[in-house]
Write a structure and sequence with these properties.
Blueprint lengths: L1 H5 L9 H5 L4 H8 L14 H8 L6 E2 L1 H11 L6 H18 L7 E2 H5 L5 H8 L3
Antiparallel strand pairs: 1-2
Length: 128
C-alpha cells in the first residue's frame, strides 16, 4: 500500500526523483526511523539517557536484546557472534534479579534503582 506512494510511476522501481521527492521513501525513513548518529550516552554520566537511547521500541522497558546491544556499543565489545551469544546468555542468567515484576523486561525503575538496579550493576561490573 505505502509502496504506491513511493513509486507513483508504477514501473516497479523507485526512481531517484521518487526517492528524494517530498513524500518519497527518504522522507518516510527520516520521519519514521530514529537516527542513531548521535553518540551513545555514557551510562556513568546519565543512566536515564542510556536507558532511553537503547529502548529502541520506546516501550519504556529494556529487553535482553536491547541491553545486549547497549553493552556491546557502550563498551565496544566484540561483535563476534559466539561472544555476543555468550554475553546474551550471561545477561539471561541474571535477568530475574533486575526484572522484579517478572514482566520479561526491565522497566525504567528497575533499571535506575540506586545501588541494586541494573544501571549501577552494569557500572560496577564493566570498568572503563
Amino acid at each position: 500500500v505505502q509502496y504506491k506512494s513511493w513509486d507513483p510511476s508504477m514501473d516497479g522501481f523507485i526512481q531517484q526523483s521518487e526517492f528524494l521527492g517530498a513524500g518519497g521513501l527518504l522522507a518516510f525513513i527520516r520521519t519514521n526511523f530514529r537516527s542513531k548518529a548521535r553518540a551513545v550516552p555514557d551510562i556513568r554520566q546519565d543512566k536515564g539517557a542510556w536507558f532511553e537511547y537503547f529502548d529502541e521500541d520506546r516501550s519504556g522497558e529494556l529487553s535482553i536484546e536491547e541491553v545486549t546491544r547497549g553493552l556491546i556499543k557502550s563498551y565496544r565489545l566484540s561483535s563476534d557472534l559466539d561472544q555476543v551469544e555468550a554475553l546474551r546468555d550471561i545477561i539471561s542468567c541474571v535477568w530475574c534479579v533486575f526484572d522484579e515484576d517478572g514482566s520479561g523486561e526491565v522497566d525504567r525503575d528497575e533499571f535506575l534503582t540506586p545501588n541494586i538496579g541494573m544501571a549501577d550493576s552494569i557500572i560496577a561490573n564493566f570498568p572503563r
